Amino acid sequence: MICDFNALHLQPELKRAIDALGYTQMTPIQQKVLRYTLAGHDAIGRAQTGTGKTAAFLITVINDLLKNPIQGERFRGEPRALILAPTRELALQIESDAKLLTKFTDLHLVTLLGGVDFEQQKKQLASNYVDIMVATPGRLIDFVEQKEVWLDQLEFLVIDEADRLLDMGFIPAVKRIVR
Questions:
Q1: pLDDT per residue over 33-74, tens digit each?
Q2: Cα–Cα distance measured from residue 105 to residue 15, given in angstroms and rounded to the nearest whole number
Q3: What's the predicted TM-score (pTM) here?
Q4: 133-161 residue pLDDT tens
Q5: Residues 35, 100: Cα–Cα separation, whole Å
Q6: Of 166, 16, 3, which is closest to residue 100 (Cα–Cα)?
Q7: Is 131 in contact with 91 (CB distance < 8 Å)?
Q8: Alpha carbon of 99 to those of 94, 95, 111, 150, 153: distances in Å?
Q9: Secondary structure tally for the chain: helices H, strands E
Q10: Bridge partners of 4?
Q11: DSSP code per residue over 96-131
């Protein structure tokens, strides 16, 4: 089994960020999942907190976005990748990890959270094209209803802690977002 990040043939900007973070060996969940997701397959992963699940899906998303830049016309408020998280805290942690992994790229990240000023987030959306959007379901639906976010051009949908999202009563919101 492949254990070393060098064996993955990642885009140079992403590999540089991984090296800068000091990561050399993949965790067990990354070893199991990355070979499939980097090949374009869907995956469901389950592992303890702190085992590298977030990095696994972020590496896949970032690598693909870098490998396949948008050639045609783009519009603001149309993310290429959406990562749903059940809580603000988790969304902020994903955002932090994503910033570290996109450090040497020109990918643009936006995070939409409840409890944060809507207008401030709206300005952030309007400032640039969105490559990766991290959001909590309620706030994302607010932006979709206000026609500030369009999900029809998504290339990736990641539902982090899906079991927790569903346990917290977000089933209707998740169904709506997926639809």
A1: 998 999 999 998 888 888 899 999 999 999 999 999 998 888
A2: 11
A3: 0.92
A4: 999 999 999 999 999 999 999 999 999 98
A5: 22
A6: 16
A7: no
A8: 9, 6, 11, 22, 22
A9: 8, 4
A10: 25
A11: HHHHHHTTTS---EEEE-TTS-HHHHHHHHHTS--S
